[in-house]
Amino acid sequence: MSAALLEVRGLRAGFGAQTILHGVDLDVPEGKVVGIFGLNGAGKSVLLKVIAGVVPAWSGSVCLAGEDVTRTSPERRVQRGMAHVPQGRQVFGSLTVEQNLRVGAYALRRRDKSRYDERLAQVYETFPKLAERRRQPAVTLSGGEQAMLAVGRALIGDPKIVLIDEPSAGLAPSVVEDLLGVLLAVRSLGLTMLLVEQNIRFGLRLSDSACLLQRGRVVYSGDTASLDQERLGTYLGVGRLLADDLTKGLGAKSTQPRRASRRKAATVSST
Ligand SMILES: Nc1ncnc2c1ncn2[C@@H]1O[C@H](COP(=O)(O)OP(=O)(O)OP(=O)(O)O)[C@@H](O)[C@H]1O
Ligand SMILES: [Mg+2]
Fold first, then answer.
1. What is the pLDDT of residues 204-228, one digit of tens each?
2. Whose Cα sits closest to atom 2 in ligand 1?
3. Which ligand has its closest atom nearest to the C-alpha of 39?
4. Which one of 20, 166, 200, 211 would you pick to mutate in the ligand 1 pocket, going by the greatest count of ligand atoms within 8 A of its CB?
5. Which residue's CA is minimally distant from atom 24 of ligand 1?
């Protein structure tokens, strides 16, 4: 079997005397979406930050496309094809939509300037709302539009993998549905994603496989379709009725076909 696009092995990390990640193993195969789920404080965001290189690993390894990047800078990981959408989105409020997108494309612009215009057009095709608001400061966007901008900023550099932390947080249910539509469209193009979500229903609809994290340890890793109510109840603290509802939804999802090419632009409308 070929190696996964992202391979995390025995990852340990923490702050001061406190260990947060106690030896995490994780594989993200190319073209798949892996969802990380866990209660508040389980270490989900720290895990993404260690993978992205913004928090150092104490031990263990992170390999991207066969290359060990454990000791490389976050910038170099971006150049190698890793994009990180941090929790809270962190768009630059005083910069316009287009300036935010330029920041996301800095590695691409340095590498291949002519590709930048092409990628920008593709992001605007995927997120027509961003095209309409290209000259507006990001602070004036709605929460949903800022979420789209954060995702667009990650996609513009044509990454191999996107690490995305709680994209649905703080959004109204109808906006969460819009965002889900966008991410499903992006996923159908074959983009590889490592997704952290508190909204389990949203996260499970996007993920091919799930990794349940409990106090910095992986307690389940496998197909979302094999996730049972008991595990959801035990590790995520969701009630039995919700877990039942979620596992029924999973059965329906697993029958959906996937398209292979990730080059074609997805067009989705967001309101
Ligand atoms: N910079 C830091 N310094 C010290 N402790 C930290 C730091 N960042 C995170 N922690 C601690 O690490 C633990 C895991 O935090 P993390 O942000 O990964 O949780 P999470 O699973 O993402 O939770 P949530 O669902 O609330 O976002 C928490 O106990 C947190 O207080
Ligand atoms: Mg978090």
1. 999 999 999 999 999 999 888 877 7
2. 15
3. 1
4. 20
5. 40
Domain locations along the chain? 6-90+158-253
Ion ligand 2 — residues with CB under 5 Å? 44-45, 87
Instruction: Check whether 109 has a pLDDT greater than 50.
Output: yes
Q: What is the pLDDT of residue 238?
A: 62
Per-residue pLDDT of 15-36, as tens digits, reads: 999 999 999 999 999 999 999 9
pTM for the whole structure:
0.87
Q: Cα of 40 to ligand 2 centre, how many Å?
A: 7
Q: If DSSP states are collapsed to H, E and C, what string results for the chain?
A: CCCCCEEEEEEEEEECCEEEEEEEEEEECCCCEEEEECCCCCCHHHHHHHHHCCCCCCEEEEEECCEECCCCCHHHHHHCCEEEECCCCCCCCCCEHHHHHHHHCHHHHHHCHHHHHHHHHHHHHHCHHHHHCCCCEHHHCCHHHHHHHHHHHHHCCCCCEEEEECCCCCCCHHHHHHHHHHHHHHHHCCCEEEEECCCHHHHHHHCCEEEEEECCEEEEEEEHHHCCHHHHHHHHCCCHHHHHHHHHHHHHHCCCCCCCCCCCCCCCCCC
Q: Is the CB of 66 under 6 A from ligand 1?
A: no
The domain 6-90+158-253 belongs to what CATH superfamily? P-loop containing nucleotide triphosphate hydrolases (3.40.50.300)
